[in-house]
Amino acid sequence: MRRVMFWVAIVIILLVFLLPIAWVYVTSLKSPADIFRPEKLAFAPTFYNYKYIATVRPSLMEFRNALIVSVVSTALVMAVSLPAAYSFARFNTGGGHLLFITISTRMFPPVVAAVPFFFLFRDLGLLDTHLGLILLYLYFNMSFATFLLYGFFREIPEELEHSAMVDGYGRLSIFRKIIFPLIKPGAAITTVFCLIFAWNEFFFAFLFTRRLARTVAVGLAVFWGSIEIQWGPMAALMALAILPTLAAAWFMQRFIIRGLTFGAVKG
Amino acid sequence: MREAVLGESLETRRTFWQILAADRYIKWFLILPLLVVLLCFMFYPLFYCLYMSFHEYVLRAPPLFIGAENYRVVLHDMVFWQAIGRTFYVLVVCIAVELSLGMGIALLLNREFKGQNTIRGLCLLPLLISPLAMSLMWNYMLHVQFGIVNQVLVWLRLGAVEWISNPKIAIYSIMFISIWQWTPFSIFVLLAGLRGLPKDALEAARVDGASRWFTFRRLTLRMLTPLIIIIILLRTMWLIRIFDPLYGTTRGGVGTESLDWFMYRISFVFFDVGKGSALALFSLYVTIVLCAILYRQLIKALGAAR
Q1: Are B23 and B130 found together in one domain?
Q2: Based on CB atoms within 10 Å of each CB, which residue in A92, A207, B160, B162 is the most buried?
Q3: For B146-204, what is each residue's pLDDT tens digit?
Q4: CB–CB of B138/B246 below 8 Å?
């Protein structure tokens, strides 16, 4: 009996979490008339909405923009955060204050940064460009990535490095041969998180892009016109925009088994 | 022979110290890029906002120094205080519901069962999907005429509800969307914490005849306190600037305007940069005070957990 109760609870939880996501795909296959008839559960699926977003609007460009911006910004974030997190974890650089300041940039309401950078970027001609958005995401994801990586670096015992040093390894070869293989899973999780954040980010993308550098997240909002919302095409674009994050989720699942304990908390 | 060994160990020790001495530079060298980005992206906006908050600047004319007028106007604005109150209401309700639901589901998922890893993974999905996309989808599903939720209610003969358009209900719909999306975060963190708990202590309590509730309250909950505070801390930071669920549903209307939406409206709809800057600094100040309090609690809890 307890087992039945347990599985009933699990099924309810899964339904609540997954049905809305499934509904995106169901809606994307509905014809324009069926969109407004929720009582019709058995409808004839059509690819009308997908054809619409592929032909009528620049969806492909939006995907390309989102891809460029998330990949480049994530690469930059990792280039900045990996050495910094290592320095924080191993040398306690700045005595904890600097780390706190770095993390506290996450406390900043995006509006605080949005107003000044909007005018700065306007003067520099960076509005509606990939570079502008990449710089913003670098700032946005850097503190979180540093915080996560800090926890992962802390889990690597310091003695390992000391003994390697005594064995005559240089700093660089220690990093390459000992630290890097150990940090790889942590770095992979951090990379995926940064990619997802950048891919999903809406507020900055919405304010700082118009047409040329518009990302998918902003593209979704465009379906909300002044008169009506184009639910069908919107669901189709959503269905495609969600796919990369679903792939990322599948990738991360392997690490969930290990249990992403927040290393920083364990101290 | 003996001297040779001693000399060698001295040799290695010296190089070790040399490297350590060089560390003083290498650690700053490693952190340099981060410092540069921090300086540019943190201090520039901060000083810009500080400067502009004492000026009147609505784009047409150059900034005009007006002292603390912006702050005075903002602090006397009823809409502002309503937005603050609403944001805090959302904050408290969402975090309370997310934590209790998250704890319940994490306890459930902490058992060993068939397909445990897949099911745990599936429970995290809402967290990874674009908040804007999902709030737009919820907007569709909660639509008063052709939303599936109301359709189900009609089938159950309960009658349709104006989820998004009724000023009394809209704010709860937004909370619901946020809770739906972020409960997995609580599950994720608490599940990781539960799996890291010392099994023998819980086992010992059970052997001693402690009730389940007692064990949970006195052991599990106490050991998870740091993680719970971390969740509260992070969610506070994120919820204080709740924006996407509003953009996807009510667009700040129907009595749902949050602090962040108010700031967005002042800064980017009216382009009142001075007032917007004053607001932004105020919001930053509130966030920092809240987070500092929580951070102190976290340090205390970490000390108690040791």
Answers
A1: no
A2: A207
A3: 888 888 888 888 878 888 888 888 889 999 999 999 999 898 888 888 877 777 777 88
A4: no
Asked if residue B22 has pLDDT above 70, the reply is no
What are the beta bridge partners of residue B55?
A: B65
Both B134 and B227 in one domain: the answer is: yes
DSSP type of residue A126: -
pLDDT, mean over chain A: 83
Q: Is B64 inside a domain boundary?
A: no
Residue type, B79: V
> Domain for residue A81, yes or no?
yes
- Contacts for B303 with CB less than 8 Å, ≥ 6 apart: none
- And the tokens for B270? 């009216």
Which residue is it, tokens 């990093």? A175
Determine the distance in angstroms separating the CA of A65 from the nearest CA of chain B, rounded to an integer.
Answer: 16
**Domain tally, chain A:** 2
Please give the residue of chain B at the shortest CA–CA distance from A168. B12
Using CA atoms, how far apart are residues A228 and A218, in angstroms rounded to an integer?
17
Contact criterion met (CB < 8 Å) for A20 and B111: no
State how far the Cα of B245 lies from the Cα of B162, in Å rounded to an integer: 17
Return the closest-CA partner of residue A142 out of A200, A192, A76: A76
The residue assigned the tokens 């992070």 is: B234
Residues A229 and A252 both lie in one domain:
yes
CA distance B53 to B57: 9
The answer to whether position B112 is within a domain reads yes
ipTM of the complex: 0.84
Give the number of other Cβ atoms within 10 Å of residue B13's Cβ: 11
Quote the distance between the C-alpha of residue A86 and its chain's center.
Answer: 22
CA distance B150 to A122: 45
Same domain, A98 and A135: yes
- Rounded Cα distance between B225 and B103, Å, is 12
- Examine the domain organization and report whether B94 and B243 are in the same domain: yes
Does some domain include residue A255?
A: yes
- Determine whether the interchain pair A166/B148 forms a contact, defined as Cβ–Cβ distance below 8 Å: no
Residues in B closer than 8 angstroms to A117, CB to CB, are 45
User: What's the CATH code of the domain at B288?
Assistant: 1.10.3720.10
Range of the domain at B206: 78-305
Task: Show residues of chain A in contact with B302, CB under 8 Å.
Answer: 265, 267
Closest residue in chain A to residue B305, using alpha carbons only? A266
Going by C-beta distance under 8 Å and a sequence separation of 6 or more, which residues neighbour residue B181? B126, B127, B129, B131, B134, B245
**Chain B contacts of A259, Cβ < 8 Å?**
191-192, 195-196
Tally the domains of chain B: 2
CA angle A110, B182, A96 (to 5 degrees): 55
Residue with tokens 């920092």: B288
